[in-house]
Write a structure and sequence with these properties.
CATH superfamily of the largest domain: Enolpyruvate transferase domain
Number of helices: 14
Shape: globular
Radius of gyration: 22 Å
CATH topology of the largest domain: UDP-n-acetylglucosamine1-carboxyvinyl-transferase, Chain
Distance between the termini: 19 Å
Structural class: alpha/beta
Number of domains: 2
Largest sheet: 4 strands, mixed
Strand order of the largest sheet: 22-23-1-24
Length: about 425
């Protein structure tokens, strides 16, 4: 088992560079299946989720290679040999369900495992299925797999009951090679949607309106699509995580390779709490905080609202802020899994269904913690960095899904954090000693 050993109380200072967006690059990898030839994607983070998606598309017959030094990924989808994405892989990462739209578009047939639920709550695929059926696909669900056949896909108007990111992406991919025009209404507006549309347009697709609630995809012929080179956008959630860590530790640092416009809502909230954030270059922010923060309220909403992926970070900051703050999680029913762990550090949090009421305390104290999911795990790292004393964090495989070299980047900023691999021989809680760091 790998663990983080963290000694809190050190302000983070220096510079850190943000990697490519996990939630974008995974979809670009699926989109690369649409074109024959060799596509190269740059700014690809070295994450376990990327490894899983590589396995998924490799099983479909695509030839892949990843250059860790260059952070580049090459995908040659000239000869796909399978239309099946197995449960053993799809169950490891829900985002791999996105290959459904690409396979239906390119091969006119797909067999993809249902991803099921996940730790943060149910995320149904009804909107994906209904949208594909509206395009002309015949779909049946058997033995936990979606079987889709579409000898012909015809563009149509599709209205999403909620602006689902996954459904928007799957339907965009499916519509690229459909006959005529497809209009997706109430579409998701996230920057990752825009990145996918830009990728597809560079490849030869005809997509307009990405980043708004209405996306129009004019179908093109297969021969019009071609291999490309493309650079992934920076990861706005990683950027928000480092902003939170710097502010939480009362530090001062520069965050580079960031698109500030993608973080406007979170930046505004942090400024209202009392943090200092300055744009020093078009893609660089200087973040600092000297004084104790003030509590405010947060409500998670689809983009451009407050992102659910940063909700746990906001909660960590509120634990030691003046006053009382309320967080309302309006998107997922089980995304307060960090609450019991923060309470063990001394946080005063009352949870009532999808509301969390956080009364600021003087300080958090270190202890042994367990990451329950990706974003909750990262928020516990931030909490441990701001806490008094030593902490141990377990179940790092969750954090590895979305943060590349997390501990190395934090150490570059002066954070007292080490990663150690240990064999667990008994259920006894490990003893924390002062000499670990």
């Amino acid at each position: 088992m790998d663990r983080y050993y963290i000694k809190g109380g050190t302000p983070l200072r220096g510079e850190v560079s943000i990697g490519g967006a996990k939630n974008s690059v995974l979809k670009l990898m699926a989109a690369a299946l649409l074109a024959k030839g060799e596509t190269k994607i740059y700014n690809v983070p070295d994450l376990t989720d990327v490894e899983i998606m590589l396995s998924v598309i490799a099983e479909l017959g695509a030839k892949t290679s990843y250059d860790k030094q260059e952070k580049s990924l090459t995908i040659d989808a000239s000869d796909l040999t399978s239309i099946t994405a197995r449960y053993e892989l799809v169950s490891k990462m829900r985002a791999s369900f996105i290959v459904l739209g690409a396979l239906v578009s390119r091969c006119r047939e797909a067999v993809v495992a249902l991803p099921g639920g996940c730790a943060i709550g149910e995320r149904r695929v009804d909107f994906h299925i209904k949208g594909l059926e509206a395009l002309g696909a015949k779909i049946k669900i058997e033995n936990g797999y979606v079987h889709a056949k579409a000898p012909k896909l015809i563009g149509t108007d599709i209205y999403l009951d909620i602006p689902s990111v996954g459904a928007t992406e799957n339907l965009m991919l499916a519509s690229v090679l459909a006959e005529g025009s497809t209009k997706i209404q109430n579409a998701a507006q996230e920057p990752e949607i825009v990145d996918l549309a830009n990728f597809l347009n560079t490849m030869g697709a005809d997509i307009n309106g990405a980043g708004t609630s209405e996306i129009i995809i004019n179908g093109v012929k297969q021969e019009k699509l071609h291999s490309i080179e493309y650079t992934t956008i920076p990861d706005r959630i990683e950027a928000g995580t480092f902003m939170s860590a710097i502010i939480a530790t009362k530090g001062k640092a520069i965050i580079r390779n960031v698109f500030p416009a993608h973080l406007t809502f979170y930046t505004d909230k942090l400024l209202k709490m009392g943090a200092n954030i300055k744009l020093i270059e078009p893609n660089s922010l200087e973040v600092s905080c000297r004084n104790r923060l003030s509590s405010i309220n947060f409500v998670t909403q689809p983009y451009p609202g407050f992102p659910t992926d940063l909700q746990s970070m906001a909660m960590t900051l509120l634990t030691c802020a003046d006053g009382v703050g309320i967080i309302t999680e309006s998107l997922y029913e089980n995304r307060f899994m960090q609450v019991p762990e923060l309470r063990r550090m001394g946080a005063d949090i009352h949870q009532d269904r999808n509301h969390a009421i956080i009364k600021g305390v003087k300080k958090l104290t270190g202890t042994t913690l367990s990451a329950s999911d990706l974003r909750a795990g990262a928020s516990l790292v931030v909490a441990a960095l701001m806490a008094e004393g030593n902490s141990i964090i377990e179940n790092l495989h969750h954090i590895d899904r979305g943060y590349e070299n997390f501990e190395n980047k934090l150490r570059l900023l002066g954070g007292k954090i080490e990663r150690k691999s240990e064999e667990i021989v008994s259920p006894v809680e490990p003893k924390i000693t002062e000499g670990l760091l």
